[in-house]
Amino acid sequence: MNARCQSALIAAHESVVMDKGWYYRLLLIVVVTTSAWITLWPSLHSWIPAPLAIRKFVADRKISPGLDIRGGLRLSYDVEVDAAVRDRRELRADELLRELGVRLGVVPKGDTPTREQLSKVRERVAISSAGERRIHLVFKDAKDADKLDHDLINRYNDLREVARNAGDVSLEVRKEFLEQIQETAVQQARETIQNRVDGLGMKEASVTAQNTDIIVEVPGADQKAFDKIREIISKTARLEFEIVDDEASFVSELSDLPAGITRQNEVVSAGTTKPQTSSSYLVSKGKEARKQLSTYVDALKASGKIPEDHKLLIGELDRIADETGAKPEPAWRTYYLFGRAEVTGQAIEDAMVSNDPQAGGKPYVAINFNSDGADAFKDLTGRNVKRRMAIVLDDIVASAPVIQTEIGGGHCQITLGGFRPYNEILNEARDLVLVLKAGALPVPIRPSNEQMIGPSLGADGVALGVRGAGVSILIVLLFMALYYEVGGVIADVMVMLHLLFLLAAQAFFGATMTLPGLVALALNMGMAVDANVLVNERIREELRAGKSARVAVEQGFARAFSSIFDSQITTLIAGVVLFQYGTGPIKGFAVTLILGICTSLFTGVFCSRVAFDWLVRGLRVQRLRVG
């Protein structure tokens, strides 16, 4: 076989391989285009003529109109980040108390300390809080302060010693950890609120965090939905299981009770040494009962009369209607509880609404703990048989049943008290299940601003924006077709594909379309045209140099790619910076810009190359018309 035949066979083989590669690229474009249409279809039509599997996949993937287009409600909340620091400080104080109990020989190493053992530890060392982040320890015997050495303090890398004088030691949370604690609290609060909003089925609502603020935007004009979302968001949903200290005499020793608040006694089963104990609690009745009792409890807390290792909370007092069936007046009472909770809502794996047949079908909330929570709950109930366990939700005692035996299996129920209609209790139970599943807010949030935004301004802006963008895009498409001829027609097809892919990407991620987003959309159309202009100009230069159409396409794309890539990368950097530091509308602009860069590179380089290769390789066009 001579050299000419070998060259011909090699060229033919390369052509076949190249043809296969072209078909694979074409297949990829067809698949991506079909997927884009399927993803975008729910945003264009309320019905989806597609198989069930596809409908389930794309049903919730829509482009939602933003507040500036549709109107709606904007809620702004301040996250009380100082509470996160206080929680970290109190957690470290509890851990130090337990570890000191082991080092002082009161608690056996490896055992979970009991209430009695912790009380003995507190007799030898008093732990109190000072300010937002400081822990103050006073040892009864100054020599015991040596147990709190640097090895123990350094075990907690967020604590440092600030003062030591004989038996007095002061610790505080390190400054370098404050920002980390606060940022974590804000992000956890944002995720929790997002989960609650999603649980309400409001997929179009957006939740963003900016510094210590959380902004919730709910498009639409449904006042009932607005009221519901306010109520759900405002619930902290901090669930705690705590033991009632019925044997303490704190409440019975309180004097000078305000008018409207009385002291009452009750006989309860408590402890293991006493079969029955008489416990005192405070009661307030009437329409202002809760407010009156809360005010008094807050005053006791502010005055420092409540011991550091205890807390005084309130709960609604169940009352039975009299013989006439009249609804009894509201009544609230106090509960005197031991310190911090040993089991919290973070241990919950699932929650659901059930009905109690023994209470006439009254709704209650059934909860299941995860494995760690089940073990902790079993240990808590096992160590406190015959004591009352308070189920506390947002610092309100929902119920306080007596623990008759150790409770295993990881199950518990919350009974919603009060003399109320069935539907009211049912709705409260459903709301509680929603927030428990979404998780408790790590710190309290405080409403700071609320705005109702009308849709008229947005509608006018959209109408003008769409009209302006449509006219400008049409002019550009006509110019490209007339000036670059065949190359311009290919560019026009690529621009329309770019628009399809960009909108489909926004629909896939459930983006919210705002006026800045429309501006970014129009800007991306111009950028997509710019990439095709560079390609056509490079191809035209190669053709003018006398090269064949096939070679002109290959070298034209090769030389245009670096210019296209460099310009897109610089724009991408600007988009990333805008997304990182911008607020809600600016973030929407940045997201559209970044997605547009990706789709314009795909259509302007990859897809248009497939189209040109079809002309010069498939149709074997010898004279390529690019203006």
CATH H-tier superfamily of the largest domain: Multidrug efflux transporter AcrB transmembrane domain
- In CATH, the architecture of the largest domain is Up-down Bundle
Termini gap: 44 Å
- Biggest β-sheet strands, sense, barrel: 8 strands, mixed
Q: Provide the residue-averaged pLDDT.
A: 80
Class based on secondary structure composition and strand pairing = alpha+beta
What's the level 1 CATH class of the largest domain? Answer: Mainly Alpha
The 3D shape can be described as: elongated
User: Which residues form runs of ≥5 with pLDDT under 50?
Assistant: 6-17, 46-57, 270-274
Radius of gyration: 34 Å
> In percent, how much strand structure appears in the residues?
15-25%
Features:
single chain; 627 residues; 3 domains; 16 helices; 52% helix
Describe what this molecule looks like in 3D.
The chain is α+β, with helices and mostly antiparallel strands and 627 residues long. The chain has three domains: 13-68 and 456-618, Up-down Bundle (Multidrug efflux transporter AcrB transmembrane fold); 81-176, no CATH class; 239-419, no CATH class. It contains 16 helices and 21 strands. The strands form five sheets. Strands 10-11-13-12-18-17-9-14 form an eight-stranded mixed sheet. The protein is elongated. It starts with a helix and ends in a 9-residue tail after the last helix. The model is unreliable at 6-17, 46-57 and 270-274 (pLDDT under 50).
